[in-house]
Design goal:
By secondary structure, the protein is mostly beta strands. The chain is built from no helices and five strands. It has a five-stranded antiparallel sheet with strand order 4-3-2-1-5, with no helix packed on it.
Length: 91
């Protein structure tokens, strides 16, 4: 994405392979979803650089009803927190 590392609000580096938690909307409610980052990128279409992530949901999320699809999602990186590293290192 750029020369500097993309980090969450705690300072942990967001890179492909880490497990993150992020808020999602389901109907009129907001829930937390867990996902694995597959790619970091930036969107420059609005005239400023906005960091984005491609993630694959793991299926673990808050709420009563389960997620129906586990397809790749593109999300903004501003409300994401790193919770684990799939390489065996944890945050």
């Amino acid at each position: 994405m750029s020369k500097t590392d993309l980090t969450d609000f705690t300072g942990a580096v967001i890179r492909p392979g880490v497990v993150v938690a992020y808020p999602t909307r389901r109907g009129n409610r907001v829930r937390n979803t867990e996902a694995v980052v597959t790619e970091t990128m930036s969107d420059r279409s609005t005239g400023r650089v906005v960091p984005k992530l491609k993630v694959i949901p793991t299926g673990r999320e808050s709420g009563i009803s389960a997620r129906k699809t586990l397809t790749t999602q593109t999300i903004g990186a501003e409300h994401v927190v790193v919770i684990a590293d799939t390489q065996g290192e944890s945050k």
